[in-house]
Amino acid sequence: MSPVTGIVVYLIIWWTVLFAVLPWGVHVSEKTEPGHADSAPARPLLVKKAIVTTLISAVIWIGFYFLQRSNLISFRAG
């Protein structure tokens, strides 16, 4: 796997995991301010979720890397 392929695979994994992590711990504010959506979270905790996403993505990517290197499954076409 080339470094560019590894980075692209990591970014795809990262974005997929981010969308899975975003709903964690979301609480809707009871009192909404004018101009905000009623469903807007009170404290979105985006930095914490980005860190968790990065750690989970790293573990998944490492698993993918070793699976690809072991030749148990071929990801090559043809």
Structural class: mainly alpha
Number of structurally distinct domains: 1
Could you describe the largest sheet, including whether it forms a barrel? none
Report helical residue fraction: 55-70%
The secondary-structure element order is HH
How far is the first residue's CA from the last residue's CA? 16 Å
Brief digest:
The chain is built from 2 helices and no strands. The chain is an all-alpha fold and about 80 residues long.
Characterization of the model:
The protein has 78 residues and is mostly helical. It has helices spanning 3-21, 46-69. The chain has one domain (1-24, 46-78). The chain has 2 helices and no strands. Helix 1 packs across helix 2. The radius of gyration is 18 Å and the shape is elongated.
List key phrases describing it.
about 80 residues, mainly alpha, 2 helices, about 0% strand, elongated, membrane
Task: Give the SSE map.
Elements: H1 3-21, H2 46-69
Helix pairs in contact: 1-2
